[in-house]
Design goal:
Blueprint (H helix, E strand, L loop, with lengths): L1 H8 L3 E7 L5 E9 L2 E12 L2 E6 L5 E10 L2 E13 L2 E4 L5 E8 L10 H4 L2 E10 L3 E16 L22 E6 L1
Antiparallel strand pairs: 1-2, 1-11, 2-3, 3-4, 4-5, 5-6, 6-7, 6-8, 8-9, 9-10, 10-11
Length: 178
């Protein structure tokens, strides 16, 4: 599975979340493979009592997710999946099922003065299953995160490890690093 290969590569990544006035949230995830990088962008909003995630720069893949808390973890389960081709929405039926489970993770062991060990950690388990093929993708791992004010997602996303001085806060953003 592709998720297993990515996980074994221990590829560094960052995520920048940007809140918008309409209540939606854009996430730009940058994964680095040596000198190469891959950026995945999606925008989430709440529609008809579901969390709708439009994946890709143009929102070409639409996944409606049911959200609930189970055993202290946030569980997102796909309700429906569709392709969006310009203004046409093409339902994909039960072609695939997406499940995301996210929870707080134990702190990392570190020495005195190791600020990374004190950073909040999250554990995530993402799975995509197809009826005839079974599980076709899985990513499971942990990451730390930090919140920064005044930044928005851009096409040139770089991980940030500290707040930059002299910036006025204009909108909220969050950065996540592996």
């Amino acid at each position: 599975m592709l998720g297993d290969r990515i996980d074994k590569l221990d590829a560094p990544f960052s995520v920048v979340n940007t809140a918008h006035a309409d209540g939606s949230l854009t996430a730009a995830r940058t994964v680095r493979f040596g000198a190469r990088r891959r950026v995945m962008v999606d925008r989430m909003s709440v529609e008809r009592r579901a969390l709708v995630d439009r994946i890709g720069r143009r929102g070409g893949l639409e996944v409606a997710l049911d959200v609930r808390v189970e055993g202290g973890a946030l569980r997102l389960q796909s309700r429906r999946i569709a392709l969006r081709l310009r203004r046409v929405r093409v339902p994909l039926g039960h072609l695939a099922e997406v499940t995301v489970i996210e929870r707080a993770a134990p702190a990392r062991a570190g020495g005195e003065g190791d600020t990374a060990a004190d950073a909040p950690r999250q554990a995530v388990d993402v799975r995509i299953r197809m009826p005839l093929l079974g599980e076709v993708f899985r990513y499971a791992g942990t990451f730390t995160y930090s919140a920064f004010a005044g930044d928005t997602a851009t096409d040139d996303i770089a991980p940030r490890t500290q707040e930059r001085p002299g910036r006025e806060a204009s909108s909220a953003g969050a950065t996540t690093s592996s």
